[in-house]
Amino acid sequence: MKVQPYLFLDGRCEEAIAHYRTVLGAEPTVLMRFEDGPDEPPPGTLPPNSAEKVMHAELRIGDSVVMLSDGNCAGRAAFEGVSLSLTAADDAQAERLFAALADGGTVQMPIGKTFFASRFGMVADRFGVSWMIVTPPAG
């Protein structure tokens, strides 16, 4: 059994995929649009003109897979009570990842040395997704 995060970006999925490709090196492995489905969605479940929006996507980020969707395309994505955690190989990578995710986002806790990590910081990116960046202590 495994647990995987599934992000509903409410209409900004394609933009998020492009951003995560650039800043995290994410590779899309699956991308299906609502118009690709074999059946019409139930009436009233999607706003007009959303056929080209992303119904389901999967991104490989390092050894992990994050799933994404435009969801109901309402433009009100909310990510509360959850964060995605990125383990960096070293402090330089942690600083780079943090800065890239903070661009257009909100720093929740500046990145720095802590008692449990050589680097740790928290940021909500431009899509509202909360990330924790950590470099474990050496040894």
From TrEMBL:
<protein>
    <submittedName>
        <fullName>VOC family protein</fullName>
    </submittedName>
</protein>
<feature type="domain" description="PhnB-like">
    <location>
        <begin position="2"/>
        <end position="134"/>
    </location>
</feature>
<dbReference type="InterPro" id="IPR029068">
    <property type="entry name" value="Glyas_Bleomycin-R_OHBP_Dase"/>
</dbReference>
<dbReference type="InterPro" id="IPR028973">
    <property type="entry name" value="PhnB-like"/>
</dbReference>
<dbReference type="Pfam" id="PF06983">
    <property type="entry name" value="3-dmu-9_3-mt"/>
</dbReference>
